[in-house]
């Protein structure tokens, strides 16, 4: 586990883009789990810029979205937001983009199929995820018990299909982003507090290759 602190959110975004680019250069056929949070839009734009400059090639990369909210017809999906923020700006093949469906008659089958799709490609090489002010990662909410694999959560914005804690922990590398002063209270609990299901991101302390990236606002009490 390593903890990296940057001056501000823009510097953090640049560092994240550089780190993720390094992962892709090291392994051109990387399998990457990506957070759909708009908080990462700046980093995704920087990665897209590296791609347009010829520094990165997404032709063999496979990308798995970490979650998808169940929305009403006509509402933009998390997958659509990822296309706008990243996928439409790089040369990733459409068949190499994976996202949970927001519509199904059997949620258990959908979740099982998504988990199997990750396993079928050998698991995730790198996961990029934001940490919420309540300690969530992906959309694994604080609870008395955490679901290990892809499942349906019920949050303040309704139902969401999300990869589970075990799925994230099985990745070879996990990059967790904490940005903004609102994260300053939870940050020390995530990074050095007890590992608790009420703080899902705290489980990353147990990962042999977890990288916590914070800006100075989030790191104030670390």
Automatic annotation (TrEMBL):
Coiled coil: none annotated. One of its GO terms (molecular function) is glucosamine-6-phosphate deaminase activity. InterPro entries: GlcN6P_deaminase-like, NagB/RpiA_transferase-like. PROSITE patterns: PROKAR_LIPOPROTEIN. Keywords: Hydrolase. It is an enzyme of class 3 (hydrolase). Its EC number is 3.5.99.6. This is Glucosamine-6-phosphate deaminase 1. It comes from bioreactor metagenome.
